[in-house]
Amino acid sequence: MQTDETFVRMLAATPEVQQPKLYEIYHENTKMHPLLEARVVNADTNPNAALNRHTNMVAIAEIESTVATGGKKYRSATRHQLPHSLDTIADVTLKDVLEKRESIREFRSEPVTLEQLAVLCELTYGWNSKRDVELDGGEISYRYVPSAGRLFPLELYLVIPLPSDESDDECDIWHYEPNSHAIERIDRVKAAEIRAAFVHFPQRLPVVALLTGVIPRLTWKYGDRAYRYAHLEAGHVGQNLVLAATALNLGACPIVSFYDDAIHDLLDVDGVSEIALYSFFIGHPDTSNGQD
Question: Among 95, 153, 154, 245, which residue's CB has the most CB atoms within a 10 Å radius?
Answer without folding.
Answer: 245
